[in-house]
């Protein structure tokens, strides 16, 4: 098999399993990079090559443990399912993630982040991220039709684990979304690409604007886009919301 044939077979298998679009793209990209690293199709590579590649990612490229684990999962699926090769998983262990409490933004810091925004669109994206406790990919792929103003909910389709759910839509967030709609007139995708209005915003674009405003707001904590989700949950807990209800809102 050629490298392209391996990828085509992998694509078929992840679609057959009904994996989320995000997982499909992750596995495809990781396997493609693995093959390109050795410039060989995976059929000509084995467990020792997988071990060397994962070691290279960790020690040379300094890739984060959770990302190395994504490579690991993709390669396990490739060999175990697509190529039907029985790998010894003990030889390709997953990285242990260091367990430490995430940094949380205070409500004052969240407001400072909103105030730092240059335009209504960016402010609306950040407010929706925080106000609904969304994951990065979830806010990027929201559709206009996902806003259920009568029920004060956002419909989150095909979230982690390929599950749909409803997220919280506050009155302040709804008013901001209405102002955004009047100014930008989104059609299908709520937050569309500036270059291609028929496609949704990429996760990388959301990361970039978040990092831009963290710096502009003079926030020195070690935070990522996912910090908004942690902060949302923490602030709800502090306000007396039950853990069970918070877990439902987060899709856990």
TrEMBL record:
GO terms for biological process: DNA integration; DNA recombination. InterPro entries: CB, DNA_brk_join_enz, Integrase-like_cat_sf, Integrase_catalytic, Integrase_recombinase_N, Integrase_SAM-like_N, Tyrosine_recombinase_XerCD. One of its GO terms (molecular function) is DNA binding. Residues 100-252 form the Tyr recombinase domain. Pfam families: Phage_int_SAM_4 (PF13495), Phage_integrase (PF00589). Keywords: DNA integration, DNA recombination, DNA-binding. Residues 1-83 form the Core-binding (CB) domain. It comes from the Bacteria. Signal peptide: none annotated. Site-specific tyrosine recombinase, which acts by catalyzing the cutting and rejoining of the recombining DNA molecules. PANTHER family: PHAGE INTEGRASE-RELATED, PROPHAGE INTEGRASE INTD-RELATED. Belongs to the 'phage' integrase family. This is Phage integrase family protein.
